[in-house]
Amino acid sequence: MTAYDLSPSATATPTFWGQVEELEFAMKRLIATESASDFIDAKINELGDWRGKMLAKVRAIIHRADPEIVEEVKWMGTPVFSHNGIVCTAETYKNAVKMTFAKGAELPDPSGLFNSSLDGNVRRAIDIHEGDTINGVALKDLIRAAVALNLRAKAKARASSSKRA
Predict the structure, then answer these.
(1) What structural domains does the chain harbor?
(2) pTM for the full predicted model
C-alpha cells in the first residue's frame, strides 16, 4: 500500500493532488470489486425494518422487469440499477425508500407513480413510505421504459459516431 503524505506543506503541492486522485481511484476500484449484490443484500439485512423489506421488494420488481439489469453501488453506498446507463437508484431514508429515475422526466408515467422531484428537467422519483403499496405492473412498465430509453440513446450515439468516421 502506498503511503500518503497529508502534512499541510504537502497538501499545497501538485503531488498531493495526484495522491488524492490515486487514492480516490483505489477506493472506487475497491467498491467495484466488492459485489454490489452482496452490498445491497447487507443493506437490506442491516435496515431490518419496513425499509429493508421495501428495498428487497423494489429490487425484485426491477429484476423481473429486466433480467439484464446490473446492480452497482455508487455515491457512498447508493444502490444503482443500470442497463446501458443508469435506470434508477434506490435510496433509503428515515421515512422513505426513494427510487430516482435518472431520465424520469422523459418517461411516460400513465399510472402516476412519480410523486417526488416533479419540477426537475431530468430526474423523477417515487417516494415510498411505510404502509404504501407498490403497483408492481406499473413499476415494471416504468423500468422497461427507462431501459428502452437508455438503449435508444446508446443506439443513437453509435449511429452519430459512425457517421463521423
Answers:
(1) 1-33 (no CATH), 36-164 (3.90.1150.200)
(2) 0.74
